[in-house]
Design goal:
The structure is a single chain. By secondary structure, this protein is an alpha+beta fold. Among the domains are: about 150 residues, Collagenase (Catalytic Domain) (3-Layer(aba) Sandwich), CATH 3.40.390.10; about 90 residues, Immunoglobulin-like; about 80 residues, Immunoglobulins (Immunoglobulin-like), CATH 2.60.40.10. The chain contains 8 helices and 21 strands. About 40% of the residues are buried.
Length: about 500
């Protein structure tokens, strides 16, 4: 029989805390059993708690938008979120890293992900070797109040769903839901549907049984029943959902010191900064020592073997400023097409988030591109217009460098020369590519040195070969592996001092 611990609160309570959301995780008996197994494993010494043992957690973020592509989260939200998660889980010596970011344009999934069609699509998208986080527009609850639930962990599908406006580095919601993923429960288990209210529950609390799960006793401040109720963890103090709607002068993480007493008449002193509680906007959240060890035990369990992939991500710090080459300082680009943006490699970084827009606020029609090169080419910006751009360097686990200084430039008024006069033949085949191998061939009457790039239609570079020597005496060709490219249209460019050759090809 299932134990349901989340029940939508009344409209009255919701109106009193209009800015307050809740966790939508539903706990079943199997989840309690799993938690107790991890607690027992910790008590029996079944996990290695020595320092210096790093545990790597791959995370796949699934970005969703409506059918027209409107509503995707911003990539920098994922970078900020990962940085805050790594700070929160550092005490467990966990390193979370980005395994992938997916993009899905589907209004069903974006607006109503609980329907059967959307759930099927989510299963198809699921990364079988990562912790999966789906970011959607809104999450409905049992009472039909849109947006009330900020996020939740779904045990049956083993994934986390987050509301888009709660997906950011300043919110503790995702860190809380990952705690559920690793078997932790709310310290206020049994009070989810009725946060403590003196008029309803008395002071001292008048019943020894929890109001929402009548088979669970009210946890006592003296710790005498801490292993059999609440979150079943004894170094987390009792909490009767005091955090729901709590505020002192606008501080929703202020000390709860109103003198609420348990059934024994002892004053209850909750842990406001516990990440699994409901006190919000705390400057820094924490786990207790036992919670940390339970998370470690869950990570090492057979049910979490799929995230122990053996992959060791790049953990080099990314701290240096970005040094820009061009276009900067309002200089004019040579052309309005094939505009190249270039900056120096940043120590520790193996990826860069690039953004360009007409306004320095980057809120008009920004273009965001993630590239693994310290340069990229964009096509067809507005001739004569002023643009602004900046870069965020990162690697898969170190994502807190932030945006670099904003640069500006003027788009030129002439088009790039899309030819090399000496080239008699320029072949790109097979087209479409079906076997993962693309051949690029050139026959020229004059020798020259060139660079070859393979890009998608937004200008993101997937392959780059420099210092290619094209000899007049022979036909030059090179085979390019396209097996890692997703289906779609791509551009191959040959760039030299004498001009540029451009051709499109499709990958099927």
């Amino acid at each position: 029989m299932a134990i349901i611990v989340f029940i939508t609160c009344s409209f009255t309570m919701q109106s009193q805390v209009e800015v307050k959301g809740v966790c939508g995780t539903v706990t079943y008996e199997t989840d309690i059993t799993r938690l107790k197994e991890n607690i027992r494993n910790v008590a029996d010494g079944g996990i290695d708690t020595r320092s210096g043992i790093t545990r790597y957690v791959p995370v796949t973020f699934h970005f969703t938008a409506d059918d027209n592509g409107n509503g995707f989260p911003r990539e920098e939200q994922a970078l900020e979120q990962l940085a805050s998660l790594n700070e929160l889980y550092a005490a467990q010596e966990f390193v979370l890293y980005i395994d992938a970011i997916t993009y899905t344009e589907d209004s069903d999934l974006y607006d109503d992900h609980r329907n059967g069609s959307a759930q099927f699509k989510m299963r198809l998208l699921k990364d079988l070797n990562a912790l999966n986080v789906y970011i959607v527009r809104t999450i409905s609850n049992d009472g039909g109040i849109p947006g009330n639930i900020l996020g939740y962990f779904e045990p049956s599908n083993d994934w986390i769903v987050m509301r888009r406006d709660e997906f950011n580095g300043t919110s503790g919601t995702l860190g809380h839901e990952i705690g559920h993923f690793f078997s932790l429960q709310h310290p206020h288990l049994g009070w989810g549907c009725q946060p403590y209210d003196e008029d309803t529950h008395g002071n001292p609390v008048s019943s020894v049984w929890s109001p929402c799960i009548t088979s669970l006793r009210v946890e006592l401040q003296n710790g005498s029943n801490c292993s059999s109720t609440g979150d079943f963890i004894c170094d987390t103090p009792p909490d009767y959902n005091f955090g729901f709607g709590w505020s002192v002068g606008g501080d929703q993480c202020a000390e709860y010191d109103v003198g609420t007493m348990d059934p024994n008449g002892d004053v209850v002193d909750p842990m406001e900064v516990n990440i699994m509680a409901y006190f919000i906007d705390c400057a820094q959240y924490e786990f207790t020592n036992t919670q940390q060890n339970v998370v470690r035990s869950s990570y090492q369990s057979s049910g979490r073997s799929y995230i122990r992939t053996g992959v060791v991500p790049n953990t080099d710090p990314v701290e240096d400023d970005v040094l820009y080459n061009f276009p900067i300082n309002d200089e004019e680009s040579p052309t309005f097409s094939q505009i190249e943006f270039d900056w120096e490699d940043v120590s520790g970084a193996n990826q860069y988030l690039f953004i360009v827009d007409r306004f320095p606020s980057f809120t008009s029609s920004p273009v965001r591109i993630i590239t693994d090169e310290s340069s990229l080419i964009m096509d067809e910006l507005t001739s004569g217009a002023r643009y602004f751009w900046k870069v965020w360097p990162f690697n898969e686990s170190q994502t807190d460098a932030g945006w670099s200084e904003t640069q500006s430039f003027i788009v030129g008024t002439t088009s790039a020369v899309n030819e090399i006069p000496s080239v008699e033949e320029f072949d790109v085949y097979p087209n479409p590519v079906k076997n993962g191998k693309l051949i690029v061939g050139i026959r020229s009457t004059e020798s020259f040195e060139a660079e070859m790039r393979i890009m998608d239609m937004s200008g993101r570079v997937f392959h780059q070969s420099k210092g290619l020597q094209i000899d007049a005496s022979t036909r030059w060709s090179e085979e390019v592996n396209t097996g890692d490219l997703a289906r779609g249209m791509y551009i191959v460019q040959i760039i030299s001092e004498k001009g540029i050759l451009t051709s499109k090809f499709a990958v099927q």
